[in-house]
Protein 1
Amino acid sequence: MQGHVDEHRAGGVMRAGEQLPELRVTPDKYLTVRYAGASGDFNPIHIDEEFAKAVGLPGKILHGLWTMAQVARAQTEAAGGPEALRRLSVQFRGMGVPEQELVVRSTVREVADGVATIDAVAEQSGKKIIRNARAEVRIDRS
Amino acid sequence: MPVSTEAVGKTYPPVVYAVGREKVREYAAATGESNPVHLDPEGARAAGYADVVAPPMFAVVYSAPAIGPAILDPEVGMNFATMLHGGQEFEWGPVVVAGDEITTAATIKDISERGGMGFYVFESTSTNQRGETACRATWTNIVRGV
């Protein structure tokens, strides 16, 4: 099952040093509730404002794995489909919150043997909430 | 209190997850996917897939029933009050589509302590019904003040 999604390919050939298109998304007030249902992670720090404040958080915080999914989406949208993404690793730092724009920035580090290695960060209000993200994306799908 | 490393190497029974079309669509919508291969069975078929394709990060959904008991295991003994999800890694094989059955096995890869923090590293391997590795994952949780 290879090469079926080329009509969605947006990025063309990736080269070292190239920036991929930025992904910008603003999670709405109830996003964490929908993601809790979709993922099965109902930790109340993500869905209950009062509980989150009671444990010292500013309010409901985003699920780290939702934010990681945005980093993944930035890669698959740039590469032309879900099959392209071979590997993704991230470090979670800080906390994401609803109703603030999230920006994923990705830079191609190197290209070898049909695989692009990409560095990415996810920021909200200038604060990195995912850093040291590293993706491997297959660009040669022949 | 120093961290206990007794549970390192412990394995948990594999868990089978049946990938459903509406679950994939729900997950894709919640994570902002717009590619029709994730959302529209017709679009997926037109692109050559048997049914809607799970976005790569859907791995968290089919892995959860296997990794959950490891994270909650009293023998591992994480203090959830001060636990943070520190890092995560996935390595993917063939894409997962609705109708697949994914079997995931979890293990405790490492437990260590540095600078007053406990590092708990879990590993999961997810295999599809054809015996192919759909995903390998490493889950790192950090517990402050151990």
Protein 2
Amino acid sequence: MTPDTVDDGARPVEAERAPPRRHPLESVLRSDALPHIWCPGCGIGVALGAFLQGLERAGIPQEKRVIVSGIGCSSRVVYYAKTDAYHTTHGRAIPFATGVKLANPSLHVTVFAGDGDLFAIGGNHFIHAARRNMDLLVVCINNFNYGMTGGQAGPTTPHDARTTTTPNGNFEVPFNLPQLAAAVGAVYVARWTTLDVRRLRDCFAEAAVKQGFRFIEVLAPCPVSFGKNNDIGSGLDEMDYYRGLEHIWGSAGGLPAPVEWRGNGDLTGTDISLHRPIVVGKFVDRARPTFSDNYAAVIAKTRAEKKGA
Amino acid sequence: MSAEKGTVLTGSHFMLGDQACAEGAIYAGCRFFAGYPITPATEIAERMAERLPGIGGQYIQMEDEIGSIAAVLGASVAGARAMTATSGPGFSLMQENLGLGFMMEVPCVVVDVQRGGPSTGLPTSVGQQDMMQARFGSHGDYASIAYSPSSPQEAFDLTLEAFGSAERLRTPVLVMMDEVVGHMRERVVIPQEGQRTISSRRLPSVAPSEYRPYRVGEDLVPEMALAGGGFSVRMTGLTHDESGRAVTNPTAQAALLPRLLRKVLENRAVYERYEVRHVEDAEVLVVAYGITGRAAIGAVEMARAKGMRAGLFRPQTVWPFPGDALLRAARSARRIVVAEINMGQVALEVERLLAGKCSVVRVTSPGGTVISPERILEACGRAREVPARR
């Protein structure tokens, strides 16, 4: 299905047929790659749409945009976004993106991948890129399981959740991704769900123009695997699930007990458990020198010392 | 990342093979190095860490060798000439992303200063046990290009050439050093800046609307659009068509994979290098590379002094093996000696190439020390006793 022939179910008679509708993001999508591979009810397309809108809002020139991804459903965004796009190996998008950014610092480099890719096989790269404050925007689509291989447990699968490899419930405990990102030095950390389309778009726009290691977790439905195995039902049902459980961090609406807002970086209590409140929002927004700032500073210092000597 | 003038170290220097390797890379325009410390390749990283910041280059120490090769590939797609250097354990970790480099066709140079293995093995002493890994280490079919220097001077020369081959053929190129060459200190003569020309990757010759990332001409090498060039490049490790779109079916695979192999195998003139000595009248031909190639030169000269007609074939590119050149060099000899610091790896290729034509005697070593010229000489004597095949 190409963007201008989205089937909305309506069947106009021949005489009334309106001119083909254009997809609002057509200029930043690759129409030759559609239809996409994502399942009905999947949240990845929603996240991609919000991301592309966010970059438009932020005014990032299209030719400067680079997306690097790994392996998995979320990593397929590189085929649909009209940017320079690199579909690399499982878990290695962050170091590949590190090379791209350092070789051409004028580029706006985003890593777009899933929870298994970024935090199981690629976890080591994540923590080190954050520690270095590498100037990258890292987007994690968290659908709580390995979708592409058919729904196995991963590092974000909630305790007790059922997957094809935890048929009687997950006996492991998951990462709290924003807490991890904050602890290892990310300068911008946020979590939203694909229910929060506009907030997500604005979050991408804000993070896109910030310098340093920025991390955005997007909770997204995976109805055919995670949803089905955990009695959540369709993609719409999982959106309803989010709506019922979401609390916005630091908002007047209040946080679920025992979560309290403790300020930048302290994310105690924001873990995700099945059928428990989900705390979303912007958790961290701070500044510190990037890897390249520090590299340049050392070069300048060395030159000054040599001149003085 | 812009190179500054006067960045190349020129003249005559007394330096380690590892340092010469780093200087060869810098001469060739390498301005990005990502690595992880490992004996006996650490001195390459140290040299790059010292040299690159002052010449507009980027050094980064990654969290592991997987990250190092991934960063090198990323830097290359953004336009940098990029390199990493490691030894056996790190080379093992790099294999998956080396495959990505072959598949995406990303020019870069990977140096393996070989030590004894398997596993942690002999971290501080010599081996040539990664030669088959250089050929077949990553999964799937591919053709690699691997140089093997026998001295610090060759470490400089062949690393420099490795960059040219990588750029010219849009592919990762390996420099298979060994601990002795890496840690050997000798005179290295570096030419004046600009005296050696090094190929550059071909950039798109058409407008972005016409550009197809994997369209090729006669030489089978696609033009390469860089990140940020306005070409909306799409590159993937999945089987893909000319446009870079993932197409995972047998037809697309048949259009892509044989072309990737032919691109390397049919452009031998770009990279093929070897040394021959005394082959015209040789009765025994010694085949050896790297530090063992050095011992083989000694053995052949000693044999000649004793009146034994020995010849030398020393491949400086071990992969793809210079097969036609070997057949020419072996015309006169009926017996071949293959010496290498492993239990028989490149010997397999030599035996395959000369099957039915020559008898092959292997000189092997489990590693830890070099093979002496005397051992090779003794093998030449033994080879003369072996019945010839033809």
